Amino acid sequence: MKQKLYPFSAKKHAHDIELIANIQFGGETEVDIDRTALNELRLALVDSRTGHNSPAWLTGKQIQLAKECIMLADEYRANYRR
After folding, report:
1. In a domain, 74, yes or no
2. Which conformational region is residue 62 in: left (phi greater than 0), alpha (psi within -120 to 50 degrees), or beta?
3. Is the entire prediction scored with pTM above 0.85?
4. Radius of gyration of the chain (CA)
5. Which residue of 48, 53, 64, 82 is most buried, as measured by CB atoms within 10 A?
6. Nearest to 39 by CA among 55, 54, 57, 24
7. Which residues are registered as beta bridge partners of 7?
8. How many domains does the chain have?
9. What is the greatest pairwise CA distance in the chain?
10. Where in the sequence is the domain holding 46, given as residue range(s)?
């Protein structure tokens, strides 16, 4: 059985997910996100942009992770700018 896929704007939110990945992998701040899931999400976004095909089509778990990354990126930016 195929998983249902949902559209997600890679063009609009890729920078948020990349920011969280940089924080996670750079060790700057502890971010409680599964590294494997984060890498899979990043690959899905890159795949969608390769063919200039926005939106990216993500699974429900990937959408949930993407939304969490967007929220964390907003929080990080708000605290960093102070």
Report:
1. yes
2. alpha
3. no
4. 13
5. 48
6. 24
7. 57
8. 1
9. 48
10. 6-26+36-80
pLDDT digits (tens, 9 = 90+) for 45-82: 887 765 565 688 899 999 999 999 999 999 999 987 66
> Are the C-beta atoms of 72 and 31 separated by less than 8 Å?
yes
CB 58 within 8 A of CB 5: yes
The reply to whether 63 falls in a domain is yes
| Residue found by looking up tokens 């999400």 in the block | 41
pLDDT in tens, 3-60: 899 999 888 888 999 999 888 887 766 677 888 999 999 988 887 765 565 688 899 9
Q: CA-to-CA distance for 1 and 3, rounded, in angstroms?
A: 7
Angle between the 60-80 and 35-50 helix axes, to the nearest 10 degrees? 100
DSSP letter (8 states) at residue 55: S
Beta strands in the chain (DSSP E): 6-8, 56-58
